[in-house]
User: What shape does this take?
Amino acid sequence: ADLQLISRQIQNREKMINNVAYEIAMLEKQIIDQQIVINNLRDDIVRLKEDYGKSLLGAYKQRNVYDKVMFVFAAQSFNQAIKRIQYINQLGDYRRHQAELIHHTQQQIIIELNLIIAAKRDKEGLIVLKEAEKKELEVDKKEESTVLVKLQVREKELRRTLAENERAASKLNNAIADLIQKEIAAEAGGNGGKTRK
Assistant: This one.
């Protein structure tokens, strides 16, 4: 019963260690995936900042050549003036949109970094748990080995005792058989001088 209990404990620990190892592998994959996402987001940030910088530089150069109002009034027709106003508005919207995209991408990087930090902490915790379970497993295996050795010694003792008991029983049976034979012989000898009627 002790041996079976220890064997079950060993099986349960091995199962837990395998489950923890699987969870660690999943966390490692998650960390790699998040690092790829962060690298892609950083590439996006670089590109967005470059575009935004070009947009600001263009606006700065335009400001040096024309004032926005002068740029509109310099139009040759009313339709052209409307288009220039739309163009100026679109440039402003584009710059705002780029700035929002940069801010949003930076926020996404922070979120992904926090997820990586959390995943790494979980992984470290699981590694500690796995190592603790491995140590307990070694203890259980040593205990199993000790119990098994004790059982083997006990089995040898019981076999030796059984053999001794069988020899004693055989001697007893032989002694009883001898006594019976002697009794029979004694009775036969006692009745030998008498004649039956």
